[in-house]
Amino acid sequence: YETHDEPLRAALLRLDEAQLLQRLGRFADAVATVDEASRVLEQAEEAELFAAAALRRAEVQHAWAQSGARAQFSRAMESFQEALTVFSREASPHVFGTIHHQLAVLYAEMPVEPVRRPMLLALAGRSFDEALRIFDVERHPLHHAEIRANYGNALLRCPESQLREPAARAIDELQRALTIYRQCDATAPQALTLLNLLEAQWQLGWAADDEAAGVRRLDDLDATWRELAGLPVPTALADDVDRWRERLAAAHAAG
Known about the structure:
The protein is mainly alpha-helical and 255 residues long. Helices cover 76% and strands 0% of the residues.
């Protein structure tokens, strides 16, 4: 395309190339490829395509951060926010909702000192709410469930000293997601969400005020475990399932 003087097509191809480089774990090369495409799109004054490049860059940077490059979290956040300047709720609702979902997960994952964690979780909550408004349960049930499940997981990142109320809210969000997964017979995400629910119930159980409340929480854990044990568990989750089997057996033995 560059040989035939079609720079826009070449730039779009570079965005696809960046996605492939990301999958290969070549994150620096992927960002450089996006930046090269962005320069062409900016010069061509293609605002929406330029924003699409910012979104692709954000996705690469977020994956890079998740792989251990912590400095990329803040860069990914800036790239997501840059994309949102063009992809508004009114003009591009699905892209807007998708960006807010990704941004919410990023806020929850960012490594910060405990004193800053509540602020980031508040930002995550606002972005999760934006995503849920776009991907409502009636028209987008599985996407809605995924957002709720991620919302529940994010709430569990609250500092331990402040965990009780967020853990209860996390259980509610995870239960909402599970209701949808059961209705849609989506067993793989159902199993993953049940594992996350076990973690939320465990954390809330040991924050109980009295012994009776702790017993009720253990009953809740048993019920969640029974549902999980009745599912065809994906191979990738098998070790986690085994760990929870041993953890619950030890809790009963300590009874």
